[in-house]
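Review form for a predicted model. The reviewer records the input and the model, then writes brief findings.
Reviewer: anonymous (R2)
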Amino acid sequence: MKQLLNTLKGVWKLIVLFLLILFTFSYAMFQGGFVSWFLFYSFVPFALYALGLSFYSLNGVKVERILPKTEYNAGEQAVIALKISRGSAFPLLYLVIEDEMSEQLLHARKSNEAKRFLFPGFQKEMSIQYKINSLPRGEHIFASVRFKTGDLLGLVEKERQAPAESRMIVYPAYEEIIYKPMAHHYEQGMTASKERVQRDTSMAIGIREYQPGDRFSWINWKATAKRNDIMTKEFEQRQSHDVYILMDCAADSRFEAIVSFTASIVRAILRKGAQVGFLTSAAARTAFPIRGGEAHQLQLFHHLAKIKDDSAASVDRVLEAEHFLLQQNSQLMIVTAQLTKVLIEKAGFFTSKNGAMTIFLIKNEHESPSGDELLLKASANARGIRVILVHNGHFADVFSGVGM
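Model under review:
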């Protein structure tokens, strides 16, 4: 329907153009004199150009968008170039070029650099370049480039959207964090260690029958002599340094800080040599198994680039529903901006069953915790749940008080 109206509008303007030519000619013929003929001959060039432009097609205009790279981090600057080529040298008085992009980029763009007013004349090739100073996190799509031209009188206008699809992935911003593994759990309490060791050979808690793979130094000779069978010492199992992260995806004004901190801590843990599992429950539930390495980090960052705060369930309900977390031999970390009594209760149940848990409470840069949150933090500490306050822009301070 819109295309039909545009066609009728173009036809009507063409009719008006012919009527104006006929009117000025008739005026010159009947009126005579220098003024009337000067008016006619002055109008003829504009009319002929408008008539020629009406038959000129913008379909021959091709555009190429050049992105220096397709992967960025949030906050970086992107320089985008557009190369325009025409198949015909028909003179154009002006050409308006506008790069069509996603809504996020439109809001992030401070200036109107992506829309340019050019005077191509007879040029068949042109180029423009513009910048987006601070890229927002997400997957952004450049769909097309819009062209618009016309004559001086505004009687004939041409407009076209040239397809030129490009994609850009903007990973979340992160800060450099020196990760210090949280305390290992023993029956006697907590300690901290630099080493990623699964068992402590200085703390024997019992004896058992020899199994293939046991070290010779583990043999309990007294028990072996008594039972006439090879018996070995059984040692206290320590919790792995591996981490499983649950990120809160409920709608919150601090969600970007949540994503940024999650990216920072994931990167820091993987660089430390530990492994990370990851769970988000936004509009769709997404779980990543515990793994390590750069490929795993890239996979998590790609997910974090596109995640949105559209979860219908609060983080405590997600924690309650995900029973598999109780079977993980790893520390559980929750990243959230909301500390509630229900969350502390659910976390306390998890701690009693599986061990260490840390809740990172995200705040804006100069935001202080409320009185209720301080009381909930004290209650969590009493249950063996570590609650750490994290301010946006100061992620590096998170582990400053954690011993190695």
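Findings: Confidence is low (pLDDT under 50) at residues 184-201.
Further findings: The two ends are 69 Å apart (CA to CA).
Recommendation: see findings above.
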